[in-house]
Amino acid sequence: MTKGEMVLSYDIMMYERVFQILKNRIECGLLPAGSSLPSRVNLCEEFGTSEKTIRRALKMLKEQGLIDTQQRKRPVISYNCNTVHRTAVLALEKIDAEITDDVLKTGVLLCYPVIKNGISLCQKEDLERPRKILENMRIENADEFWRLSKRFWRFFVARNENDLSLRAVDSLGLGDLKPLQDDAVCRTKYYEQLQEFMRIIESGGAPESAPFDDMSGLYGFTYGDRPAFHAPSDSTVVLGRERLEKLLSGAEVRYAAVYMDLLGLIAVGRYRRGDKLPTHRELQEKYGVCADTTIKAIQMMQEWGVVKTVRGNGIFVEMELEELKKIQIPAHLIANQVRRYLDSLELLALTVEGTAGCAAPRIAQEEIRAVKNKISRLWNEEYLYGRTPAVLLDFIIEHTGIDALNGVYALLQRNLRIGRSIPALLHTEKTAVNCKIHEQCVKAIDSLSSENYAAFSGEAAAAFQSIYRLVIGECRRLGYYEAAMEVYDGSALWK
Known about the structure:
Blueprint: H1 3-27, H2 40-47, H3 51-63, E1 67-68, E2 76-77, H4 86-94, H5 97-121, H6 128-136, H7 142-158, H8 163-172, E3 178-179, H9 184-202, E4 221-222, E5 226-227, E6 229-230, H10 236-239, H11 241-248, H12 255-267, H13 280-287, H14 291-303, E7 307-310, E8 314-317, H15 321-324, H16 331-359, H17 365-379, H18 388-398, H19 403-416, H20 432-449, H21 453-478, H22 481-485
Antiparallel strand pairs: 1-2, 3-6, 4-5, 7-8
């Protein structure tokens, strides 16, 4: 190719690029109808190109009916996006940059480790499903293309066979976003990168080695606080934590959750024989349930002899801890609670490393000293020694600075309380395993104190992974695990 041919080729590439960028800005509403384009001088400076190139790009915009031009005046936008891109306009009007950025950060911290773990669980034959999805993606059909893109990534989330993880990721609403700058060039490039990603994982390579360009066109902002994507008006990306928590709280709290928690409180010494439990009204407020739910829960506990109801006086504990241990609760009656507990522990174990890493730089030394003192104090108190992991988790959550993430973790915190209520799962003595987990948590805090943030996040993750493995082992030993796995068919989430 001669020098002249190279210049000509470059010019063609540039005016087409300028045309496409300006076209996208107009169609998505960033340059609304009636507004003026920047001057040709300013456009030359922005794109680093010649006036000739800018003139050719403007000519193409006029030919497509996107702008009107008059001599000695800047071009005016004639394209009205209100009729054909209402979703985009709604996003531009309603999105709060802080809220959206918060949700996008949550997506990074939750989705990546869950997807990576889902990939690690895939057998060769499992990968035929995402491969088929890719084969069905058509560049020319934008709506179907982005729908299948969502299905592609969602497959790896679902492969974890964890309903809670899937609901948490779905609730973020990231799969429903579509780039504003959506054209064949954008989709082609993204598709090629998906193909390369698929090739890498099919060959057993590391998912993180797959090259993806800046995806701000899908997930991010343009021009400071402008969204770079279409977003449904009721999306978490628009509405934030409140919407997220509403979506996550979809599962009804049943009476089993009430009696399981009360059993747990008795097991840890919160209530002793003769103590009066909260009234039905107080229980309804605490657990957010109706009267029928608390009545059923108390009736079940009466049948086991754990409590008695004295008409006109209230509900009283009838058992001490040693008697409580002898209660034989059928596995199927607590299966839902055990499954929720296991699902929550798994999601926590997968995501806490990134969450801890996010929190670490925001923690002051005086706060570290305070939490170390708290852990030491609780470790030496009867019934409370097992609080070390919970204190560490609370400490991490307090310092993430990411509201949507904390919404997900608030649910995990509530679900982790189930552990204290599963019969025989909680030990009131300091076992070797419990001591090891305590030491892991303390080691994590010590690493944080020395500002070794990578070690802190890794050791925190190791502690919760140890807890997850321990709980699975204990549930198998006690005969709970099989019943819990039958609560729902995990494979149905992805097959």
